[in-house]
Amino acid sequence: MVDKIETVLQTIDLDATPPVQEPMRQYYFLKKARKYIEEASRKMGRPLTACTTTFGCQMNARDSEKLDGILRQIGYQKSESEEADFVIYNTCTVRENANQKVYGRLGVLHSYKKKNPRMMIGLCGCMMQEPDVVEKLKKSYPFVDLIFGTHNIYKFAELIVNRFESGHPIIDIWKETDQIVEDLPCERKYPFKSGVNIMFGCNNFCSYCIVPYVRGRERSRNPKDIIREIEKLVADGVVEVMLLGQNVNSYGKTLEEPVTFAQLLREIEKIDGLKRIRFMTSHPKDLSDELIEVMRNSKKICNHLHLPLQSGSSRILKIMNRKYTKEQYLELVEKIRAAVPDISLTTDLIVGFPGETEEDFLETLDVVRKVRYDSAFTFIYSKRTGTPAAKMENQIPQEVVKDRFDRLLSEVQAISKEEAKKVEGQILPVLVEEVNGQDDSLVTGRLTNNLLVHFKGTKDLIGKIVEVELKECRGFYYMGEKCER
Ligand code: SAH
Ligand code: SF4
Ligand code: F3S
After folding, report:
1. pTM value?
2. Which of 78, 148, 206, 363 has its CA 20 to 30 A from that of 463?
Protein backbone atom coordinates (compact mmCIF):
# COMPACT_ATOMS: atom_id res chain seq x y z
CA MET A 1 0.00 0.00 0.00
CA VAL A 2 2.66 2.49 1.07
CA ASP A 3 4.74 1.74 -2.01
CA LYS A 4 1.82 2.44 -4.30
CA ILE A 5 1.09 5.71 -2.52
CA GLU A 6 4.78 6.60 -2.65
CA THR A 7 4.74 6.25 -6.44
CA VAL A 8 1.72 8.56 -6.68
CA LEU A 9 3.33 11.10 -4.34
CA GLN A 10 6.30 11.42 -6.68
CA THR A 11 4.00 12.66 -9.46
CA ILE A 12 2.40 15.39 -7.31
CA ASP A 13 3.31 19.04 -7.95
CA LEU A 14 3.07 21.02 -4.71
CA ASP A 15 2.94 24.33 -6.62
CA ALA A 16 -0.35 23.33 -8.19
CA THR A 17 -3.63 23.90 -6.30
CA PRO A 18 -4.67 20.94 -4.14
CA PRO A 19 -6.93 18.45 -5.97
CA VAL A 20 -10.59 18.36 -4.91
CA GLN A 21 -11.10 14.61 -5.32
CA GLU A 22 -10.19 12.14 -2.56
CA PRO A 23 -7.89 10.41 -1.94
CA MET A 24 -5.77 12.50 -4.37
CA ARG A 25 -6.32 15.58 -2.22
CA GLN A 26 -4.89 13.79 0.82
CA TYR A 27 -1.94 12.48 -1.21
CA TYR A 28 -1.15 16.12 -2.02
CA PHE A 29 -1.25 17.02 1.68
CA LEU A 30 0.80 13.96 2.63
CA LYS A 31 3.55 15.29 0.40
CA LYS A 32 3.17 18.83 1.68
CA ALA A 33 3.17 17.75 5.34
CA ARG A 34 6.32 15.75 4.69
CA LYS A 35 8.04 18.94 3.53
CA TYR A 36 7.17 20.71 6.80
CA ILE A 37 8.30 17.75 8.92
CA GLU A 38 11.60 17.59 7.01
CA GLU A 39 12.19 21.31 7.63
CA ALA A 40 11.37 21.02 11.33
CA SER A 41 13.59 17.99 11.64
CA ARG A 42 16.50 19.82 9.99
CA LYS A 43 16.10 22.69 12.47
CA MET A 44 16.03 20.34 15.43
CA GLY A 45 18.91 18.27 14.05
CA ARG A 46 17.07 14.98 14.66
CA PRO A 47 14.06 13.05 13.37
CA LEU A 48 10.68 14.06 14.81
CA THR A 49 8.77 11.51 16.86
CA ALA A 50 5.05 10.86 17.23
CA CYS A 51 3.05 8.84 19.75
CA THR A 52 -0.55 7.71 19.22
CA THR A 53 -2.59 6.73 22.26
CA THR A 54 -5.87 4.92 21.75
CA PHE A 55 -8.86 4.80 24.08
CA GLY A 56 -12.01 2.77 23.48
CA CYS A 57 -12.98 0.01 21.12
CA GLN A 58 -11.51 -1.88 18.18
CA MET A 59 -12.88 0.70 15.74
CA ASN A 60 -10.73 3.28 17.45
CA ALA A 61 -7.75 0.92 17.41
CA ARG A 62 -8.20 0.54 13.66
CA ASP A 63 -8.55 4.32 13.21
CA SER A 64 -5.30 4.76 15.11
CA GLU A 65 -3.55 2.47 12.64
CA LYS A 66 -4.71 4.89 9.94
CA LEU A 67 -3.34 7.85 11.93
CA ASP A 68 -0.05 5.98 12.34
CA GLY A 69 0.04 5.24 8.61
CA ILE A 70 -0.23 8.95 7.85
CA LEU A 71 2.29 9.95 10.54
CA ARG A 72 4.85 7.51 9.16
CA GLN A 73 4.23 8.54 5.56
CA ILE A 74 4.92 12.19 6.39
CA GLY A 75 8.13 11.39 8.23
CA TYR A 76 7.43 11.02 11.95
CA GLN A 77 9.19 8.19 13.73
CA LYS A 78 7.05 6.07 16.02
CA SER A 79 7.50 6.65 19.74
CA GLU A 80 6.00 4.73 22.65
CA SER A 81 6.62 7.64 25.00
CA GLU A 82 4.29 10.61 25.28
CA GLU A 83 7.32 12.89 25.57
CA ALA A 84 7.28 12.96 21.76
CA ASP A 85 7.15 15.84 19.25
CA PHE A 86 3.58 14.99 18.36
CA VAL A 87 1.16 13.23 20.71
CA ILE A 88 -2.27 12.31 19.50
CA TYR A 89 -5.09 10.93 21.64
CA ASN A 90 -7.78 8.99 19.81
CA THR A 91 -10.57 9.29 22.38
CA CYS A 92 -13.65 7.35 23.49
CA THR A 93 -16.74 8.70 25.20
CA VAL A 94 -18.90 5.62 25.65
CA ARG A 95 -18.74 5.98 29.44
CA GLU A 96 -17.94 9.00 31.58
CA ASN A 97 -14.73 7.49 33.00
CA ALA A 98 -13.29 7.27 29.46
CA ASN A 99 -13.62 11.09 29.26
CA GLN A 100 -12.13 11.74 32.67
CA LYS A 101 -9.01 9.79 31.78
CA VAL A 102 -8.33 12.10 28.84
CA TYR A 103 -8.65 15.30 30.86
CA GLY A 104 -6.35 13.88 33.51
CA ARG A 105 -3.66 12.94 31.03
CA LEU A 106 -3.85 16.25 29.17
CA GLY A 107 -2.43 17.91 32.29
CA VAL A 108 0.64 15.68 32.03
CA LEU A 109 1.01 16.44 28.31
CA HIS A 110 0.95 20.15 29.12
CA SER A 111 3.98 19.73 31.38
CA TYR A 112 5.84 17.94 28.54
CA LYS A 113 4.93 20.75 26.15
CA LYS A 114 6.41 23.34 28.51
CA LYS A 115 9.73 21.47 28.23
CA ASN A 116 9.45 21.07 24.43
CA PRO A 117 7.55 24.12 23.08
CA ARG A 118 7.60 22.75 19.54
CA MET A 119 5.60 19.75 20.72
CA MET A 120 2.17 19.35 19.10
CA ILE A 121 -0.85 17.82 20.82
CA GLY A 122 -3.76 16.44 18.83
CA LEU A 123 -7.13 15.12 19.98
CA CYS A 124 -9.55 13.19 17.83
CA GLY A 125 -12.16 10.45 18.03
CA CYS A 126 -15.58 10.07 19.59
CA MET A 127 -15.21 12.48 22.52
CA MET A 128 -14.49 15.34 20.11
CA GLN A 129 -17.91 14.91 18.49
CA GLU A 130 -19.49 16.33 21.66
CA PRO A 131 -19.85 20.12 21.46
CA ASP A 132 -19.52 20.54 25.26
CA VAL A 133 -16.18 18.77 25.22
CA VAL A 134 -14.79 21.02 22.49
CA GLU A 135 -15.99 24.12 24.37
CA LYS A 136 -14.26 22.93 27.53
CA LEU A 137 -11.05 22.21 25.62
CA LYS A 138 -11.05 25.63 23.98
CA LYS A 139 -11.52 27.33 27.32
CA SER A 140 -9.36 25.32 29.66
CA TYR A 141 -6.86 23.50 27.42
CA PRO A 142 -5.73 26.13 24.87
CA PHE A 143 -2.38 24.36 24.45
CA VAL A 144 -4.02 21.65 22.30
CA ASP A 145 -2.94 22.17 18.66
CA LEU A 146 -5.32 20.02 16.70
CA ILE A 147 -8.89 18.87 17.37
CA PHE A 148 -10.88 16.80 14.90
CA GLY A 149 -13.63 14.21 15.02
CA THR A 150 -14.55 10.76 13.78
CA HIS A 151 -15.86 11.78 10.33
CA ASN A 152 -12.79 13.61 9.01
CA ILE A 153 -9.99 11.42 10.35
CA TYR A 154 -8.95 10.77 6.73
CA LYS A 155 -8.01 14.47 6.51
CA PHE A 156 -5.30 14.13 9.17
CA ALA A 157 -2.48 15.14 6.78
CA GLU A 158 -4.41 18.18 5.56
CA LEU A 159 -5.14 19.26 9.13
CA ILE A 160 -1.48 18.93 10.07
CA VAL A 161 -0.56 21.14 7.09
CA ASN A 162 -3.19 23.69 8.19
CA ARG A 163 -1.65 23.72 11.66
CA PHE A 164 1.87 24.27 10.31
CA GLU A 165 0.76 27.02 7.93
CA SER A 166 -1.55 28.94 10.25
CA GLY A 167 0.54 28.70 13.43
CA HIS A 168 -2.74 28.50 15.37
CA PRO A 169 -4.74 25.64 16.86
CA ILE A 170 -6.99 23.94 14.30
CA ILE A 171 -10.46 22.72 15.26
CA ASP A 172 -12.41 20.87 12.59
CA ILE A 173 -15.42 18.79 13.62
CA TRP A 174 -18.06 17.53 11.21
CA LYS A 175 -21.56 16.64 12.38
CA GLU A 176 -22.06 13.93 9.78
CA THR A 177 -20.63 12.50 6.58
CA ASP A 178 -21.70 10.16 3.82
CA GLN A 179 -18.16 9.75 2.49
CA ILE A 180 -15.89 6.76 2.86
CA VAL A 181 -12.38 7.53 1.63
CA GLU A 182 -10.42 4.45 0.52
CA ASP A 183 -6.72 3.85 -0.16
CA LEU A 184 -5.09 5.93 2.55
CA PRO A 185 -1.96 4.76 4.37
CA CYS A 186 -2.30 2.47 7.36
CA GLU A 187 0.28 1.02 9.73
CA ARG A 188 -0.79 -2.23 11.38
CA LYS A 189 0.03 -3.02 14.97
CA TYR A 190 0.38 -6.74 14.18
CA PRO A 191 1.87 -8.06 10.92
CA PHE A 192 -0.28 -11.22 10.98
CA LYS A 193 -3.72 -9.96 11.97
CA SER A 194 -5.78 -6.92 11.21
CA GLY A 195 -9.08 -5.22 11.84
CA VAL A 196 -11.09 -4.40 8.73
CA ASN A 197 -13.94 -1.88 8.86
CA ILE A 198 -16.92 -3.20 7.00
CA MET A 199 -19.23 -0.41 8.11
CA PHE A 200 -19.21 2.84 10.04
CA GLY A 201 -21.75 4.48 12.34
CA CYS A 202 -24.87 3.09 13.99
CA ASN A 203 -28.62 3.50 13.47
CA ASN A 204 -29.85 1.64 16.51
CA PHE A 205 -30.07 4.35 19.13
CA CYS A 206 -30.07 2.10 22.18
CA SER A 207 -31.39 4.58 24.73
CA TYR A 208 -28.25 4.60 26.92
CA CYS A 209 -25.70 4.81 24.14
CA ILE A 210 -23.84 7.81 22.72
CA VAL A 211 -22.21 5.99 19.79
CA PRO A 212 -24.89 6.88 17.15
CA TYR A 213 -24.43 10.56 18.04
CA VAL A 214 -20.65 10.56 17.76
CA ARG A 215 -20.19 8.06 14.93
CA GLY A 216 -23.10 9.14 12.73
CA ARG A 217 -25.46 7.12 10.57
CA GLU A 218 -24.74 3.60 9.42
CA ARG A 219 -22.68 3.38 6.21
CA SER A 220 -21.46 0.12 4.72
CA ARG A 221 -18.34 -0.18 2.65
CA ASN A 222 -18.64 -1.62 -0.79
CA PRO A 223 -18.02 -5.42 -0.69
CA LYS A 224 -15.47 -5.09 -3.49
CA ASP A 225 -13.42 -2.59 -1.46
CA ILE A 226 -13.52 -4.89 1.57
CA ILE A 227 -12.42 -7.94 -0.41
CA ARG A 228 -9.67 -5.95 -2.14
CA GLU A 229 -8.39 -4.70 1.21
CA ILE A 230 -8.35 -8.21 2.70
CA GLU A 231 -6.59 -9.63 -0.36
CA LYS A 232 -3.90 -6.98 0.00
CA LEU A 233 -3.59 -7.69 3.72
CA VAL A 234 -3.18 -11.41 3.05
CA ALA A 235 -0.54 -10.68 0.42
CA ASP A 236 1.21 -8.69 3.16
CA GLY A 237 1.23 -11.59 5.66
CA VAL A 238 -2.13 -11.30 7.42
CA VAL A 239 -3.78 -14.63 8.32
CA GLU A 240 -6.59 -13.39 10.57
CA VAL A 241 -9.07 -10.55 10.05
CA MET A 242 -11.53 -9.03 12.48
CA LEU A 243 -14.45 -7.50 10.58
CA LEU A 244 -15.55 -4.39 12.42
CA GLY A 245 -18.90 -2.63 12.74
CA GLN A 246 -21.23 -1.52 15.54
CA ASN A 247 -23.79 -3.97 14.24
CA VAL A 248 -22.24 -6.20 11.59
CA ASN A 249 -25.52 -8.09 11.18
CA SER A 250 -27.07 -5.10 9.45
CA TYR A 251 -24.15 -4.82 7.02
CA GLY A 252 -25.04 -3.96 3.44
CA LYS A 253 -28.63 -2.87 3.98
CA THR A 254 -27.98 0.69 2.86
CA LEU A 255 -25.82 -0.17 -0.18
CA GLU A 256 -27.12 0.62 -3.67
CA GLU A 257 -27.04 -3.09 -4.36
CA PRO A 258 -27.84 -4.55 -0.94
CA VAL A 259 -25.71 -7.44 0.27
CA THR A 260 -26.17 -9.38 3.52
CA PHE A 261 -23.45 -9.91 6.08
CA ALA A 262 -23.72 -13.66 5.47
CA GLN A 263 -23.10 -13.12 1.73
CA LEU A 264 -20.10 -10.95 2.49
CA LEU A 265 -18.69 -13.66 4.77
CA ARG A 266 -19.07 -16.27 2.02
CA GLU A 267 -16.99 -14.09 -0.30
CA ILE A 268 -14.34 -13.44 2.34
CA GLU A 269 -14.13 -17.18 3.07
CA LYS A 270 -12.98 -17.72 -0.53
CA ILE A 271 -9.87 -15.55 -0.15
CA ASP A 272 -6.85 -17.83 -0.51
CA GLY A 273 -4.31 -17.65 2.27
CA LEU A 274 -6.73 -16.12 4.77
CA LYS A 275 -6.99 -18.55 7.69
CA ARG A 276 -9.22 -17.00 10.33
CA ILE A 277 -12.23 -14.67 10.26
CA ARG A 278 -13.61 -12.90 13.32
CA PHE A 279 -16.24 -10.20 13.54
CA MET A 280 -17.77 -7.83 16.04
CA THR A 281 -20.28 -6.69 17.11
CA SER A 282 -23.36 -8.80 16.43
CA HIS A 283 -26.63 -7.26 17.50
CA PRO A 284 -29.01 -10.06 18.53
CA LYS A 285 -31.99 -8.41 16.81
CA ASP A 286 -30.44 -8.80 13.35
CA LEU A 287 -28.68 -12.16 13.62
CA SER A 288 -30.12 -14.15 10.72
CA ASP A 289 -30.55 -17.88 10.11
CA GLU A 290 -28.48 -17.33 6.98
CA LEU A 291 -25.58 -16.13 9.17
CA ILE A 292 -25.88 -19.14 11.49
CA GLU A 293 -25.77 -21.39 8.43
CA VAL A 294 -22.64 -19.67 7.12
CA MET A 295 -20.97 -19.99 10.53
CA ARG A 296 -21.85 -23.67 10.68
CA ASN A 297 -20.32 -24.42 7.29
CA SER A 298 -17.33 -22.13 7.43
CA LYS A 299 -13.81 -23.45 7.88
CA LYS A 300 -12.40 -20.01 8.63
CA ILE A 301 -14.89 -18.25 10.89
CA CYS A 302 -13.60 -18.55 14.45
CA ASN A 303 -15.40 -20.50 17.07
CA HIS A 304 -16.52 -17.39 18.92
CA LEU A 305 -19.51 -15.08 18.88
CA HIS A 306 -19.78 -11.85 20.84
CA LEU A 307 -23.49 -11.33 21.41
CA PRO A 308 -24.20 -8.39 23.72
CA LEU A 309 -27.19 -8.99 25.98
CA GLN A 310 -27.04 -5.69 27.99
CA SER A 311 -29.88 -6.78 30.30
CA GLY A 312 -31.79 -10.01 30.91
CA SER A 313 -35.02 -8.21 31.77
CA SER A 314 -37.45 -7.88 28.85
CA ARG A 315 -38.90 -4.80 30.52
CA ILE A 316 -35.51 -3.06 30.66
CA LEU A 317 -34.55 -4.28 27.17
CA LYS A 318 -37.63 -2.52 25.86
CA ILE A 319 -36.70 0.77 27.53
CA MET A 320 -33.14 0.28 26.28
CA ASN A 321 -34.61 0.04 22.74
CA ARG A 322 -32.78 -3.22 22.09
CA LYS A 323 -35.71 -4.74 20.16
CA TYR A 324 -35.52 -8.29 21.58
CA THR A 325 -36.85 -9.97 24.71
CA LYS A 326 -35.12 -12.27 27.16
CA GLU A 327 -36.92 -15.23 25.60
CA GLN A 328 -35.96 -14.29 22.04
CA TYR A 329 -32.34 -13.91 23.11
CA LEU A 330 -32.31 -17.33 24.80
CA GLU A 331 -33.93 -18.94 21.75
CA LEU A 332 -31.30 -17.37 19.53
CA VAL A 333 -28.54 -18.78 21.75
CA GLU A 334 -30.11 -22.23 21.53
CA LYS A 335 -30.30 -22.01 17.74
CA ILE A 336 -26.65 -20.99 17.51
CA ARG A 337 -25.53 -23.74 19.89
CA ALA A 338 -27.54 -26.33 17.96
CA ALA A 339 -25.74 -25.32 14.76
CA VAL A 340 -22.26 -24.78 16.24
CA PRO A 341 -22.18 -26.87 19.43
CA ASP A 342 -18.81 -25.88 20.86
CA ILE A 343 -19.04 -22.14 20.06
CA SER A 344 -17.67 -19.74 22.63
CA LEU A 345 -20.21 -17.05 23.55
CA THR A 346 -19.26 -13.72 25.08
CA THR A 347 -21.35 -10.69 25.93
CA ASP A 348 -21.67 -7.14 27.27
CA LEU A 349 -23.82 -6.43 30.33
CA ILE A 350 -24.96 -3.16 31.87
CA VAL A 351 -26.07 -2.87 35.50
CA GLY A 352 -27.88 0.09 37.00
CA PHE A 353 -29.83 1.25 33.95
CA PRO A 354 -32.44 3.82 35.14
CA GLY A 355 -35.35 2.10 36.86
CA GLU A 356 -33.62 -1.30 37.09
CA THR A 357 -35.19 -3.19 40.00
CA GLU A 358 -33.73 -6.11 41.94
CA GLU A 359 -36.05 -8.37 39.92
CA ASP A 360 -34.77 -6.96 36.64
CA PHE A 361 -31.24 -7.55 37.84
CA LEU A 362 -32.07 -11.15 38.80
CA GLU A 363 -33.30 -11.69 35.23
CA THR A 364 -29.84 -10.68 34.00
CA LEU A 365 -28.24 -13.12 36.45
CA ASP A 366 -30.66 -15.78 35.22
CA VAL A 367 -29.57 -15.36 31.59
CA VAL A 368 -25.92 -15.41 32.67
CA ARG A 369 -26.53 -18.74 34.42
CA LYS A 370 -28.51 -20.19 31.54
CA VAL A 371 -26.15 -19.17 28.74
CA ARG A 372 -22.94 -19.70 30.73
CA TYR A 373 -20.86 -17.14 28.83
CA ASP A 374 -17.22 -17.91 28.18
CA SER A 375 -16.58 -14.35 29.18
CA ALA A 376 -18.54 -11.15 29.70
CA PHE A 377 -17.72 -7.46 29.88
CA THR A 378 -19.71 -5.97 32.74
CA PHE A 379 -20.35 -2.23 32.82
CA ILE A 380 -21.88 0.13 35.32
CA TYR A 381 -24.47 2.27 33.55
CA SER A 382 -23.01 5.67 32.76
CA LYS A 383 -25.24 8.64 32.06
CA ARG A 384 -24.42 10.13 28.64
CA THR A 385 -25.74 13.63 28.00
CA GLY A 386 -27.96 13.76 24.93
CA THR A 387 -29.17 10.15 25.13
CA PRO A 388 -32.82 9.41 26.06
CA ALA A 389 -31.77 7.43 29.16
CA ALA A 390 -29.98 10.45 30.63
CA LYS A 391 -33.32 12.19 31.02
CA MET A 392 -35.04 9.22 32.64
CA GLU A 393 -36.11 9.46 36.24
CA ASN A 394 -35.11 7.01 38.95
CA GLN A 395 -31.42 6.78 38.19
CA ILE A 396 -30.17 4.05 40.53
CA PRO A 397 -28.20 5.00 43.68
CA GLN A 398 -24.51 4.20 43.48
CA GLU A 399 -24.38 1.77 46.38
CA VAL A 400 -27.19 -0.34 44.89
CA VAL A 401 -25.44 -0.43 41.52
CA LYS A 402 -22.11 -1.31 43.10
CA ASP A 403 -23.67 -4.21 45.00
CA ARG A 404 -25.32 -5.58 41.82
CA PHE A 405 -22.15 -5.09 39.84
CA ASP A 406 -20.10 -7.09 42.37
CA ARG A 407 -22.63 -9.92 42.43
CA LEU A 408 -22.77 -10.02 38.63
CA LEU A 409 -19.00 -9.96 38.28
CA SER A 410 -18.41 -12.81 40.68
CA GLU A 411 -21.05 -14.95 38.94
CA VAL A 412 -19.65 -14.16 35.48
CA GLN A 413 -16.09 -14.93 36.60
CA ALA A 414 -16.98 -18.20 38.30
CA ILE A 415 -18.76 -19.39 35.16
CA SER A 416 -15.98 -18.25 32.77
CA LYS A 417 -13.45 -20.12 34.87
CA GLU A 418 -15.43 -23.34 34.61
CA GLU A 419 -16.12 -22.86 30.91
CA ALA A 420 -12.47 -22.15 30.13
CA LYS A 421 -11.59 -25.66 31.30
CA LYS A 422 -13.78 -27.35 28.73
CA VAL A 423 -11.09 -27.85 26.09
CA GLU A 424 -8.41 -29.06 28.55
CA GLY A 425 -6.48 -32.01 27.13
CA GLN A 426 -7.46 -31.30 23.52
CA ILE A 427 -5.05 -30.52 20.69
CA LEU A 428 -6.15 -27.32 18.98
CA PRO A 429 -4.73 -24.77 16.52
CA VAL A 430 -3.17 -21.67 18.07
CA LEU A 431 -2.22 -18.48 16.23
CA VAL A 432 1.03 -17.39 17.86
CA GLU A 433 0.98 -13.66 18.66
CA GLU A 434 4.06 -12.80 20.69
CA VAL A 435 6.92 -13.88 22.91
CA ASN A 436 5.57 -14.09 26.45
CA GLY A 437 6.17 -10.83 28.34
CA GLN A 438 7.16 -12.55 31.60
CA ASP A 439 9.07 -15.59 30.38
CA ASP A 440 10.84 -15.36 27.04
CA SER A 441 11.15 -19.12 26.68
CA LEU A 442 7.39 -19.11 26.09
CA VAL A 443 5.23 -17.78 23.27
CA THR A 444 1.61 -16.69 23.60
CA GLY A 445 -1.15 -17.34 21.11
CA ARG A 446 -4.89 -17.56 20.73
CA LEU A 447 -7.33 -20.40 20.19
CA THR A 448 -10.14 -19.74 17.74
CA ASN A 449 -12.41 -19.33 20.79
CA ASN A 450 -10.19 -16.38 21.78
CA LEU A 451 -8.57 -17.96 24.89
CA LEU A 452 -4.86 -17.39 25.36
CA VAL A 453 -2.35 -20.23 25.42
CA HIS A 454 1.28 -20.07 26.58
CA PHE A 455 3.75 -22.72 25.49
CA LYS A 456 7.47 -23.30 24.90
CA GLY A 457 8.50 -21.75 21.61
CA THR A 458 10.55 -19.13 19.84
CA LYS A 459 9.78 -15.88 18.08
CA ASP A 460 9.94 -17.40 14.60
CA LEU A 461 6.55 -18.93 15.39
CA ILE A 462 4.88 -15.50 15.57
CA GLY A 463 2.12 -15.24 12.97
CA LYS A 464 2.00 -19.01 12.44
CA ILE A 465 -0.85 -21.33 13.33
CA VAL A 466 0.42 -24.41 15.20
CA GLU A 467 -1.19 -27.40 16.89
CA VAL A 468 -0.90 -27.20 20.67
CA GLU A 469 -1.89 -29.69 23.33
CA LEU A 470 -3.77 -27.84 26.06
CA LYS A 471 -2.13 -29.33 29.12
CA GLU A 472 -3.48 -27.22 31.94
CA CYS A 473 -6.15 -24.57 32.30
CA ARG A 474 -5.09 -21.86 34.74
CA GLY A 475 -8.15 -19.73 35.29
CA PHE A 476 -8.63 -17.84 32.07
CA TYR A 477 -5.67 -19.14 30.05
CA TYR A 478 -3.89 -22.37 29.14
CA MET A 479 -0.42 -23.77 29.49
CA GLY A 480 0.23 -25.98 26.48
CA GLU A 481 2.78 -27.98 24.57
CA LYS A 482 3.39 -27.66 20.85
CA CYS A 483 2.79 -30.88 18.94
CA GLU A 484 5.77 -31.86 16.81
CA ARG A 485 4.70 -33.18 13.46
N1 SAH B 1 -22.41 -1.79 19.06
C2 SAH B 1 -22.14 -2.66 20.13
C3 SAH B 1 -21.62 -1.98 21.38
C4 SAH B 1 -20.72 -0.82 21.31
S5 SAH B 1 -20.41 -0.02 22.84
C6 SAH B 1 -23.42 -3.40 20.49
O7 SAH B 1 -24.51 -2.91 20.28
O8 SAH B 1 -23.30 -4.44 21.06
C9 SAH B 1 -19.75 -1.36 23.81
C10 SAH B 1 -20.53 -1.63 25.05
O11 SAH B 1 -20.48 -0.53 25.93
C12 SAH B 1 -22.01 -1.88 24.86
O13 SAH B 1 -22.29 -3.17 24.45
C14 SAH B 1 -22.57 -1.59 26.24
O15 SAH B 1 -22.57 -2.74 27.04
C16 SAH B 1 -21.58 -0.60 26.80
N17 SAH B 1 -22.19 0.73 26.93
C18 SAH B 1 -22.63 1.54 25.94
N19 SAH B 1 -23.15 2.67 26.46
C20 SAH B 1 -23.04 2.57 27.81
C21 SAH B 1 -23.40 3.41 28.90
N22 SAH B 1 -24.00 4.57 28.70
N23 SAH B 1 -23.12 2.98 30.15
C24 SAH B 1 -22.52 1.79 30.36
N25 SAH B 1 -22.16 0.97 29.38
C26 SAH B 1 -22.41 1.33 28.10
FE1 SF4 C 1 -24.68 1.72 20.90
FE2 SF4 C 1 -26.75 0.18 20.48
FE3 SF4 C 1 -25.41 1.16 18.40
FE4 SF4 C 1 -24.33 -0.71 19.94
S5 SF4 C 1 -26.13 -0.94 18.66
S6 SF4 C 1 -23.36 1.16 19.23
S7 SF4 C 1 -25.09 -0.22 21.96
S8 SF4 C 1 -26.61 2.31 19.90
FE1 F3S D 1 -15.78 4.51 22.42
FE2 F3S D 1 -16.27 5.54 20.09
FE3 F3S D 1 -15.75 2.97 20.30
S4 F3S D 1 -17.31 6.04 21.96
S5 F3S D 1 -16.48 2.45 22.32
S6 F3S D 1 -14.37 4.60 20.76
S7 F3S D 1 -17.15 3.93 18.87
Report:
1. 0.95
2. 78
